[in-house]
Sequence to fold (143 residues):
Amino acid sequence: MSYEEKGTWVYLVVAVVGFTVYVTFVLPPLVGGTPADEIDYVPVMLWTIGGAIVASIVGRIAVEMFSPSDSTKGDVRDREIDRLGERVGGSFVVIGALAALVLAMFRAEWFWIANVIYLCFVLSAVVSSITKLVAYRRGVPTW
Fold:
Protein backbone atom coordinates (compact mmCIF):
# COMPACT_ATOMS: atom_id res chain seq x y z
CA MET A 1 0.00 0.00 0.00
CA SER A 2 1.44 3.36 -1.00
CA TYR A 3 2.07 6.27 1.33
CA GLU A 4 -0.76 8.25 -0.28
CA GLU A 5 -3.24 5.38 0.02
CA LYS A 6 -2.45 4.97 3.71
CA GLY A 7 -3.00 8.69 4.19
CA THR A 8 -6.35 8.41 2.44
CA TRP A 9 -7.43 5.67 4.85
CA VAL A 10 -6.44 7.83 7.82
CA TYR A 11 -8.33 10.81 6.37
CA LEU A 12 -11.47 8.71 5.82
CA VAL A 13 -11.46 7.23 9.32
CA VAL A 14 -10.80 10.58 10.99
CA ALA A 15 -13.55 12.30 8.98
CA VAL A 16 -16.14 9.68 9.95
CA VAL A 17 -15.09 9.42 13.60
CA GLY A 18 -14.78 13.18 14.01
CA PHE A 19 -18.25 13.87 12.65
CA THR A 20 -19.69 11.03 14.72
CA VAL A 21 -18.21 12.58 17.86
CA TYR A 22 -19.68 15.96 16.90
CA VAL A 23 -23.13 14.47 16.28
CA THR A 24 -23.10 12.62 19.63
CA PHE A 25 -22.71 15.96 21.41
CA VAL A 26 -25.08 18.07 19.32
CA LEU A 27 -27.88 15.71 18.32
CA PRO A 28 -29.22 14.64 21.77
CA PRO A 29 -30.25 18.16 22.86
CA LEU A 30 -31.82 18.77 19.44
CA VAL A 31 -33.79 15.53 19.61
CA GLY A 32 -34.65 16.30 23.23
CA GLY A 33 -36.52 19.40 22.15
CA THR A 34 -33.93 22.13 22.71
CA PRO A 35 -34.41 24.85 20.09
CA ALA A 36 -31.57 25.03 17.58
CA ASP A 37 -30.68 28.60 18.53
CA GLU A 38 -30.08 27.52 22.15
CA ILE A 39 -27.63 24.71 21.34
CA ASP A 40 -24.03 25.74 21.97
CA TYR A 41 -22.61 23.96 18.93
CA VAL A 42 -19.70 26.31 18.13
CA PRO A 43 -17.22 25.07 20.76
CA VAL A 44 -18.04 21.45 19.97
CA MET A 45 -17.60 22.07 16.24
CA LEU A 46 -14.30 23.89 16.73
CA TRP A 47 -12.94 21.21 19.07
CA THR A 48 -14.05 18.46 16.70
CA ILE A 49 -12.43 20.11 13.68
CA GLY A 50 -9.24 20.84 15.64
CA GLY A 51 -9.21 17.31 17.02
CA ALA A 52 -9.64 15.89 13.52
CA ILE A 53 -6.65 17.86 12.28
CA VAL A 54 -4.49 16.61 15.15
CA ALA A 55 -5.82 13.05 14.78
CA SER A 56 -4.99 13.08 11.06
CA ILE A 57 -1.42 14.14 11.74
CA VAL A 58 -0.94 11.66 14.58
CA GLY A 59 -2.70 8.90 12.62
CA ARG A 60 -0.51 9.41 9.59
CA ILE A 61 2.62 9.31 11.74
CA ALA A 62 1.42 6.21 13.57
CA VAL A 63 0.62 4.38 10.34
CA GLU A 64 4.07 5.15 8.99
CA MET A 65 5.72 4.03 12.23
CA PHE A 66 3.98 0.66 12.22
CA SER A 67 3.90 0.10 8.47
CA PRO A 68 6.56 2.24 6.78
CA SER A 69 6.22 3.03 3.10
CA ASP A 70 9.09 2.59 0.67
CA SER A 71 8.77 6.21 -0.40
CA THR A 72 6.74 9.23 0.64
CA LYS A 73 6.83 10.68 -2.88
CA GLY A 74 3.77 10.15 -4.99
CA ASP A 75 4.02 9.00 -8.57
CA VAL A 76 1.91 9.88 -11.60
CA ARG A 77 -0.76 7.36 -10.61
CA ASP A 78 -1.05 8.88 -7.11
CA ARG A 79 -1.47 12.34 -8.60
CA GLU A 80 -4.16 11.16 -11.03
CA ILE A 81 -6.03 9.38 -8.26
CA ASP A 82 -5.79 12.43 -6.01
CA ARG A 83 -7.06 14.69 -8.78
CA LEU A 84 -10.01 12.38 -9.47
CA GLY A 85 -10.93 12.07 -5.80
CA GLU A 86 -10.72 15.80 -5.18
CA ARG A 87 -12.91 16.55 -8.19
CA VAL A 88 -15.57 14.12 -7.04
CA GLY A 89 -15.40 15.23 -3.39
CA GLY A 90 -15.28 18.92 -4.29
CA SER A 91 -18.79 18.73 -5.62
CA PHE A 92 -20.05 18.34 -2.06
CA VAL A 93 -18.33 21.57 -1.03
CA VAL A 94 -20.30 23.33 -3.77
CA ILE A 95 -23.51 21.60 -2.67
CA GLY A 96 -22.84 22.73 0.90
CA ALA A 97 -22.26 26.30 -0.19
CA LEU A 98 -25.47 26.33 -2.21
CA ALA A 99 -27.43 24.76 0.65
CA ALA A 100 -26.05 27.35 3.07
CA LEU A 101 -26.92 30.13 0.64
CA VAL A 102 -30.50 28.89 0.35
CA LEU A 103 -30.78 28.54 4.14
CA ALA A 104 -29.47 32.09 4.56
CA MET A 105 -32.00 33.38 2.02
CA PHE A 106 -34.76 31.78 4.07
CA ARG A 107 -33.24 33.26 7.24
CA ALA A 108 -32.61 29.89 8.84
CA GLU A 109 -30.89 29.71 12.22
CA TRP A 110 -27.10 29.92 12.14
CA PHE A 111 -27.07 26.44 13.67
CA TRP A 112 -28.54 24.94 10.50
CA ILE A 113 -26.32 26.94 8.15
CA ALA A 114 -23.14 25.98 10.02
CA ASN A 115 -24.17 22.35 10.28
CA VAL A 116 -25.06 21.95 6.62
CA ILE A 117 -21.65 23.37 5.69
CA TYR A 118 -19.89 21.07 8.15
CA LEU A 119 -21.88 18.05 6.94
CA CYS A 120 -20.97 18.76 3.33
CA PHE A 121 -17.27 19.16 4.22
CA VAL A 122 -17.42 15.74 5.86
CA LEU A 123 -19.30 14.25 2.91
CA SER A 124 -16.67 15.75 0.62
CA ALA A 125 -13.90 14.08 2.63
CA VAL A 126 -15.72 10.73 2.73
CA VAL A 127 -16.71 10.65 -0.94
CA SER A 128 -13.27 11.88 -2.02
CA SER A 129 -11.55 9.22 0.09
CA ILE A 130 -13.79 6.42 -1.12
CA THR A 131 -13.27 7.50 -4.73
CA LYS A 132 -9.51 7.46 -4.24
CA LEU A 133 -9.54 4.06 -2.51
CA VAL A 134 -11.65 2.56 -5.28
CA ALA A 135 -9.27 4.05 -7.86
CA TYR A 136 -6.30 2.51 -6.03
CA ARG A 137 -7.96 -0.91 -6.32
CA ARG A 138 -9.54 -0.68 -9.78
CA GLY A 139 -7.45 1.96 -11.49
CA VAL A 140 -8.26 5.43 -12.76
CA PRO A 141 -11.09 5.31 -15.28
CA THR A 142 -10.25 6.41 -18.80
CA TRP A 143 -13.09 8.44 -20.25
In short: The chain is about 80% helix and 0% strand. The radius of gyration is 18 Å.
